[in-house]
Every structure is written in C-alpha cells, then in structure tokens.
Amino acid sequence: MSDSEIFDRIAEEVYRQGYSVLSNALPVELCTALADEVKSLPVERFSRAGIGRQDAHIKTEAIRRDEICWIDNSTTAGHAWLEWADGLKRALNRRLFLGLFSFESHYAHYQPGDFYKVHLDAFRGQQNRVLTVVTYLNSDWPAEDGGELLIYPEEGKIPLLKVTPEFGTLVVFLSEEFPHEVLPANADRYSIAGWYRINSSGNGKVDPDA
Ligand SMILES: O=C(O)CCC(=O)C(=O)O
Ligand SMILES: [Fe+2]
C-alpha cells in the first residue's frame, strides 16, 4: 500500500471506530532508520518518563518505567519520521476535519520488566492531545516477550485490542477516549509514541507552536 492508501485507511478506521491498527504501515526504510537510530542513541539521551508535571517520582515509578528521548528534525531519521507524521496529519485533517495542528513524539525504550499501567493520554476539556500515534521498532517479537499494548473501551475492563509491538505496526487512537496499557516486556522494547494536538492558543496563553 502507498502512504496515501495507508493514510486513507487510518482516517476511515478512526472515523468509524476511533482507532486504527495497521501492520507494516511504516515504510520499511523509514522504520529501519528509526530502529537503527533508537538503538544507537547514547543512554544519556534517554530520561525516565513522567506522568504529568507535578507527579512525584515514586508515583511515576509505579505507573510507568520506560525511558524516553524526544524526536526532532536534527537527524535524518527524525526528520523523515516527522515528515511522514505530517503527511498523516494533513490526510486526517482533509478527511476528518480534526484540526490537528502540532505533533510531538518521542522514542521509548522499555527494558525487561518495564511497563506502563492503564492510563489516558489526554483529559477531556483540556483540549491538548487529540490523537495518539504509536509505532514499533522491534523486528521479530515473539509472543513470550510480552510487552503488548492493550486498548480498552472508554468504560469497561475487557480490552478491545491486544497489539504486539512488532516492527512497522502503527496504532492510532483518540487520546481522550481509550484507556490503554503496556504489559511488562520481557526483552528490550523500542517504540515511538506521538501526539497530535489542536491549536490551544486563546484563553490568554500563547501556544508555543503557533
Ligand atoms: O508503547 C505503547 O504501546 C504505548 C505507549 C503509551 O501508551 C504512551 O507512551 O503513552
Ligand atoms: Fe499512552
């Protein structure tokens, strides 16, 4: 499938059900470049991820254990990824009128034993993160390595979906609507998590991306 066919399919599924999961969605060369980059970054580029501004370190540790590194345009792989994400944004805005404005994303590394307990990526009314995008950079991920992403309905304890963090798989969902979690990984698990935001300037604050 071409990028534009992939973008169309994601738009159609997000419109119909609020989420989309596609294997081999990311072009192989792009996914390979990102996988090479994330594995070659020096460890000091990664930092323990947080869960919102004022949360105590101890509480964060109980909720998530991954380490992250924000992606920017300064590397070839980062630039290519941001271009691809921009193409997806334009397609989604054209078809769904979501008004997506800016995009932020980071690499994440889950070491064996790391997890991310059930959470939402955005809270209603805050109008910040609208759409979550996750992609995986692990070639050959056997079932025994765990680390699956579980996506739950807005209310309810039975997952709608269980996603294996396999190379090239892309997951997109409405950030405010789907609680989700990452089960403990039994091997090094590399991914990218990103969020499209709407322009939240107004209410006296200047949006940094405006
Ligand atoms: O890596 C994943 O499968 C999901 C990560 C996630 O939920 C997040 O970073 O907010
Ligand atoms: Fe999340």
Automatic annotation (TrEMBL):
Transmembrane segments: none annotated. It comes from the Bacteria. Residues 96-198 form the Fe2OG dioxygenase domain. Gene3D superfamilies: q2cbj1_9rhob like domain. One of its GO terms (biological process) is cellular response to hypoxia. GO terms for molecular function: ferrous iron binding; L-ascorbic acid binding; peptidyl-proline dioxygenase activity. Keywords: Dioxygenase, Iron, Metal-binding, Oxidoreductase, Vitamin C. Its cofactor is L-ascorbate. This is Fe2OG dioxygenase domain-containing protein. It comes from Amphritea japonica ATCC BAA-1530. The lineage of its organism: Bacteria, Pseudomonadati, Pseudomonadota, Gammaproteobacteria, Oceanospirillales.
